[in-house]
Amino acid sequence: MVGRFDDWEKDDKGHLKVWPMQAFTTALFGAEKVGLRIEIGTAPPKPGEPVPALQLVLDPAQVRQLAEALAEAEARLADARFTTLANSPPGSA
């Protein structure tokens, strides 16, 4: 894992800066591009406050790559949960 997160932004203590996703939306831009808006923050914004978000435009290859990466991450997460449950003492799950 050394070097895996070298390019990620970190705080002054060296911890990765990550934000919970609040919501996302997608849109088609013609027949060639997909828009993806990811709303982030530690809590939903109050009425009238702007919503922090990252807005991306993706071509079809990028959509496929992102979908595959998310599916792989979900499968690894499911495997990790199964392994944790399988290694738990009886009656602790």
Walk me through what this model shows:
The chain is α+β, with helices and mostly antiparallel strands and 93 residues long. 29% of the residues lie in helices and 25% in strands. It is extended, with a radius of gyration of 18 Å. A three-stranded antiparallel sheet has the order 1-2-3. The protein has one helix and three strands, in the order βββα. A hairpin with a 3-residue loop joins strand 1 (21-29) and strand 2. The model has no long low-confidence stretch (mean pLDDT 88).
Broad structural category: alpha+beta
| Strand composition percent | 15-25%
Taking strands numbered 1, 2, ... along the chain, how are they ordered across the largest sheet? 1-2-3
Average pLDDT rating: 88
Q: In this structure, how is the largest beta sheet organized? A: 3 strands, antiparallel
Please tell me what the overall shape is.
extended
Q: Radius of gyration, Cα only, in angstroms?
A: 18 Å
Spans of at least 5 consecutive residues whose pLDDT stays below 50 are: none
Distance between the termini: 29 Å
Give the tally of β-strands.
3
SSE succession = EEEH
Query: What is the tally of helical segments?
Result: 1
Helical proportion? 25-40%
Q: Could you give the topology of this structure?
A:
Blueprint: E1 21-29, E2 33-40, E3 53-58, H1 60-86
Antiparallel strand pairs: 1-2, 2-3
